[in-house]
Amino acid sequence: MSNQIAILLAVLLFPGGVFALAFGLAMKGVDRRVAARLQSRVGPPLLQPFFDIIKLGFKRTMVPAAANETVFLYTPLVGVVAMLVAAALVPITSVYAPDAAIGNLLVLLYLLMIPGIVLMIAGSASGSPYGAIGFSREMALMIAYEGPLVLIAAAVAIRTGMGMGGWATFSLNDIVAYQQAHGSFLFDPVMWPAVAAFCFFYPANVGIVPFDIPEAETEVLEGPLLEYSGPVLALFKIMSALKKVVVLGLGIALFFPAAPAGIVGGFLVWLVKMAVMMLVGITAVRLSMGRMRIDQAFVFFLKWPLLLAVASLAVVVVV
C-alpha cells in the first residue's frame, strides 16, 4: 500500500503533477521573456503562462457543429494523464528514482507518442479542414522523428547493459547509476552520434520552430487546436508544459545525469541543466531559424538524425 501511495504522489505531486506543471509553465515564461529581450522587446510577464491557464479556465468551451463532441472534449485529457505518468518515470539523480512498477524507458517512449496522437485525433475530431491538415503534418513529423528516438534509446540501453556485463537494460535507474559510476555518456565518444541525434529530436518533439509545422499560425491557423477554447484548450497547454519537462529530463537522464550526492545539490544541478537545455535547445533554436516545410522536415529527419542514430547503435554493438 505504501508503494502505491508513493507512486501516486510521484504522479500527482513530484516529480510529476503539480511540480512538473509549475516548472514547465515557468520554463515557458522564461523562454518567452528571454526571447523578447534578445529581440529588443519587453516581453510578457514571467507568470504569463500561468495567467493564460487561469484565464482559459474561466472561458466557455465552444464545440463546432461538425465535431465529434465526446472525442473533441476528452482527447486532451488523455494526453495530460499520459504526461503526468511520464514525468514520474524520469529520474532525477540524488533526488528521485522512479519505481520499476510503473515502467521503464520503453514505457516512457510509448507515453511520449501519446501527445502527438492526441493532437492528430483532436484535429480530426474538430471537423475543421485546418485540423485535418494539422493531422497529416503531425503524423508525417512523428513518423520522421520517432524512428531516431527508438534507436537512440536502444544505443543507450545496450551501452549500459554491456557495461554492466549483460546485453541491454531499459531501466532508467540503471542507466543513471551506470553513468554515475563510469562517467556520463555526453563525454563518451561512442555515444556522441546519439547525443547529436537527440539534440535534433527534442526541439521537434516539443513542437518549436523550425518544427512547429502542424500548428503553423501563418499557414494552418494553429491546425489541430484552431477550434479549441476554454478549459479544453488549457488542457493542451498543460500537456505541452508537462511534455517539455519530460523530454528535457529524459535527455539529462540518458546522457548527463551526473550530480553531487544529497537532495539539495542534486536538485539544483538538475535545475541548471534543464535551464541550459531549454535556453540552448529551445529558445536559441526557435529564434535563429525559420519554419521548415513538412517535406523538408521529413527528409531532414530521415537523413541526419536517423543516420546519426543508426551509426551510434552500430558503434555501440561493435565496440
From TrEMBL:
Q: Which PROSITE patterns match?
A: COMPLEX1_ND1_2 (PS00668)
Q: Which InterPro entries does the UniProt entry name for this protein?
A: ComplexI_Subunit1, NADH_UbQ_OxRdtase_su1/FPO, NADH_UbQ_OxRdtase_su1_CS
Pfam families (UniProt xref):
NADHdh
The transmembrane segments are 71-93, 105-127, 245-261, 267-285, 297-318
Classify the protein's membrane topology as the record does: Multi-pass membrane protein
| Locations listed in the record | Membrane
GO molecular function (one)? quinone binding
Record bears the keyword Protease: no
What GO cellular-component annotations does this UniProt entry give?
Answer: plasma membrane
Q: Which UniProt keywords apply?
A: Membrane, Quinone, Transmembrane, Transmembrane helix
Principal location listed in the UniProt entry: membrane
Q: What is this protein called?
A: Hydrogenase
Q: Which species does this protein come from?
A: Pleomorphomonas diazotrophica
